[in-house]
């Protein structure tokens, strides 16, 4: 299996983003995804900046995929999407409009995790539209994935979201702005103050969600670290690591060592103090942490 670095889901200062990817160019990841998936109002990097960064990483020897927004809301979003599709890279489509635009532009498609692909026939249809890879929905269990792969007729790369705060849902309303009693169009870009999202607890003080602009994420870090043997046996071709403000490099190194058969236990208490979970993969509640095979 290969390692990939998923798109940055958070709003970081421009220099932090550039420094992060300068370092990532040396990491043992095969593919790096770039682009704004969550909110078009985030403007530290513009579309042209993402494309320029993609060229730099390609020159450094990385396979680069440009990622589209999951929720398109304006004509400006469509203009940016067309620029991404025409930039000469594969496009991770997180919206059906992105599938159509990428197909019209002749760009190879990665069917993103926010598309509804739950059976082999649907995956075959996306392959007929130009998809060369896909990322299953975050809530798909290992058993369901194996069933889907048994049903498909196409040859397509399967990439599983292996580590990071799971993106759960999107809304036209900005949760972060609402938290600070601000309007979405006058949000003051408060997301930039929370480089890994804003944790939300229940009234009883239990971790519940993580809000990230218009996106909600899992409170814990979804990690399939303990499920690596089953991932390989399930026909998974690549594992996605989602960028975080701290310890992404350490997690990438740990996963790379595990794939090479030289793994040492990660320092979960330091690297992921909020805890890890893998319930979805085992067909359980997503926040569960299960050790042992789900087969």
Description:
The mean pLDDT is 94. The two termini are 20 Å apart. With 295 residues, the protein is of the alpha/beta class. The protein is globular. The chain has helices spanning 14-24, 47-59, 75-85, 96-105, 120-128, 142-151, 175-179, 228-233, 248-259, 268-271, and strands spanning 2-5, 31-34, 63-67, 90-93, 109-111, 131-134, 157-164, 167-170, 198-201, 207-212, 215-218, 221-223, 238-241, 276-277. Strand 2 (31-34), helix 2 and strand 3 (63-67) form a beta-alpha-beta unit. Strands 1-2-3-4-5-6-7-13 form an eight-stranded parallel β-barrel, surrounded by four helices. It has a four-stranded antiparallel beta sheet with strand order 8-11-10-9, with no helix packed on it. It has one domain: TIM Barrel (Alpha-Beta Barrel).
Task: Record keyword descriptors for this entry.
single chain; 295 residues; TIM Barrel; eight-stranded parallel β-barrel; 20% strand; iron; UbiV
Strand order of the largest sheet: 1-2-3-4-5-6-7-13
Name of the level-1 CATH class: Alpha Beta
What share of the residues does DSSP label as strand, in percent? 15-25%
Seen as an oligomer or otherwise, the chain set is: single chain
**Tally of separate domains:** 1
The total count of strands amounts to: 14
CATH-level-4 superfamily name = Aldolase class I
Summarize model confidence as the mean pLDDT. 94
Instruction: Specify the helix fraction band.
Output: 25-40%
Protein name: Ubiquinone biosynthesis protein UbiV
Pfam families: Peptidase_U32 (PF01136)
GO molecular function: 4 iron, 4 sulfur cluster binding; metal ion binding; peptidase activity
Pathway: Cofactor biosynthesis; ubiquinone biosynthesis
């Amino acid at each position: 299996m290969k390692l990939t670095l998923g798109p940055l889901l958070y709003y970081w200062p421009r220099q932090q983003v550039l420094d992060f990817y300068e370092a990532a160019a040396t990491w043992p990841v095969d593919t790096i995804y770039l682009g704004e998936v969550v909110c078009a109002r985030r403007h530290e990097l513009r579309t042209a900046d993402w494309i320029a960064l993609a060229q730099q990483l390609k020159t450094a020897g990385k396979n680069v995929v440009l990622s589209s927004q999951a929720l398109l809301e304006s004509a400006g979003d469509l203009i940016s999407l067309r620029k991404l599709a025409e930039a000469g890279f594969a496009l991770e489509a997180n919206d059906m409009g992105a599938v159509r635009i990428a197909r019209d532009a002749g760009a190879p498609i990665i069917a993103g995790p926010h598309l509804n692909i739950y059976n082999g026939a649907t995956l075959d249809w996306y392959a007929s539209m130009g998809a060369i890879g896909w990322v299953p929905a975050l809530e798909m269990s290992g058993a369901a994935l194996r069933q889907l792969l048994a049903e498909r007729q196409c040859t397509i790369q399967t990439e599983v979201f292996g580590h990071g705060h799971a993106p759960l849902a999107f809304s036209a309303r900005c949760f972060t702005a609402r938290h600070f009693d601000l309007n979405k169009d006058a949000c003051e870009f408060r997301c930039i103050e929370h480089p890994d999202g804003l944790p939300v607890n229940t009234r009883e003080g239990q971790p519940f969600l993580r809000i990230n602009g218009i996106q909600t994420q899992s409170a814990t870090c979804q990690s399939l670290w303990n499920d690596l043997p089953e991932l390989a046996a399930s026909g998974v071709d690549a594992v996605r690591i989602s960028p975080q403000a701290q310890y992404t490099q350490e997690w990438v190194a740990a996963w790379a060592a595990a794939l090479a058969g030289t793994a040492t236990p990660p320092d979960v208490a330091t690297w992921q103090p909020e805890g890890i979970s893998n319930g979805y993969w085992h067909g359980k509640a997503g926040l569960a942490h299960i050790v042992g095979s789900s087969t």
